[in-house]
Design a protein that fits this description.
- By secondary structure, the chain is of the alpha/beta class.
- It has two domains: 62 residues, Orthogonal Bundle (434 Repressor (Amino-terminal Domain)), CATH 1.10.260.40; 201 residues, Rossmann fold (3-Layer(aba) Sandwich), CATH 3.40.50.
- The protein contains twelve helices and seven strands.
- The chain has a seven-stranded mixed sheet.
- Helix 9 links the parallel strand 2 and strand 3.
- The structure holds S-adenosylmethionine.
Length: 271
């Protein structure tokens, strides 16, 4: 899709007129009209604000497939399960808070090879899950077939994905650091809006501490997304009830070089 069509589609999705979009960007409506009919292109200096106003990443605005940003497809091509099959301990914490007394609707964002999604589905949750990596999704589907559970898996990019139906539980482990600073508020606001009352979000994110050096195997996409400030995750949920908010520093040996990470963990309930 070309950039003009992308601008027109996103603008209409958001219900903006050309004039309204032009005002937000401080350009004339004729300029917007020209972009949309392909007779000119927006200036590169406008791209960050254009992407932010239209709720998309610059990559997708320019028509680049987002998966080019991570090397997870490569990692997930290896034999076996890159992250193992043991569910994240947050799944158990989530289950303690919301035991599957009814088929709660769960959305797993950045499900990778599906270990947590499958674990939750086996325990009676109604799970939907997405990831940007086709290879990860392929393994996730195999795993769910093998375990005899039905999960709706699909490919999407958390940076421009917008949910339209409500979920009881939104779960995401090790993914939010891919969301660039300028999109975080919008992405999270959309997830919060589409969460049922008393629903919960279970999220962890890597954060930067000035006294911890950057990990040796940090990806370009993580750097370009920008650091998450320590405590930043909690601020997006100031109006929800915190069931758990924790910051922990832990050792890691990925890439064969010992180093440390700092992670903020939040379980918050919509009241
Ligand atoms: C550290 S892994 C975590 C996988 C899984 N949540 C787990 O804990 O096993 C990060 C995952 O985020 C996915 N990812 C990276 N960028 C993404 C994006 N923009 N949208 C959706 N998923 C993304 C990667 O493909 C990868 O599967």
């Amino acid at each position: 899709m070309n950039i003009g069509k992308m601008i027109a589609n996103k603008r209409k999705e958001l219900g903006f007129t050309q004039q309204a979009l032009a005002e937000k960007l401080n350009v004339s409506f004729q300029a917007v009209s020209k972009w949309e009919n392909g007779t000119s292109y927006p200036d590169v200096t406008l791209l960050p604000s254009l992407a932010a106003v239209l709720n998309v990443s610059i990559d997708s605005l320019l028509g680049y497939p987002s998966q080019s940003i991570t090397d997870y497809d490569k990692r997930y091509k290896s034999e076996g399960y890159y992250w193992g099959l043991a569910p994240n301990h947050l799944c158990y914490e989530m289950m303690r808070l919301k035991p599957p007394t009814r088929p709660y609707k769960v959305l797993d964002i950045g499900c990778g090879e599906g270990k947590d999604a499958v674990f939750l589905a086996r325990n009676g949750y109604h799970v939907t899950a997405f990831d940007i990596s086709e290879q990860g999704l392929c393994k996730a589907r195999e795993l769910s077939d093998r375990c005899g559970v039905e999960i709706h898996f699909f490919k999407a990019d958390v940076r421009d994905f917008r949910i339209e139906t409500d979920y009881d539980i939104i779960f995401s482990s090790g993914v939010f650091h891919y969301i660039p600073a300028e999109l975080r508020w919008r992405v999270i606001e959309n997830l919060k809006t589409h969460t049922t009352i008393n629903g919960i979000h279970v999220i962890n994110v890597f954060v930067r501490k000035p006294f911890i050096p950057l990990p040796p195997d940090i990806e370009e996409s993580e750097i370009s997304a920008g650091d998450w400030r320590s405590g930043e995750l909690f601020t997006y949920y100031h109006d929800w009830l915190f069931r758990k908010n924790e910051e922990r520093i832990f050792d890691c040996n990925s890439g064969g070089i010992p180093h440390k990470h700092c992670m903020d963990v939040l379980i918050a309930e919509k009241i």
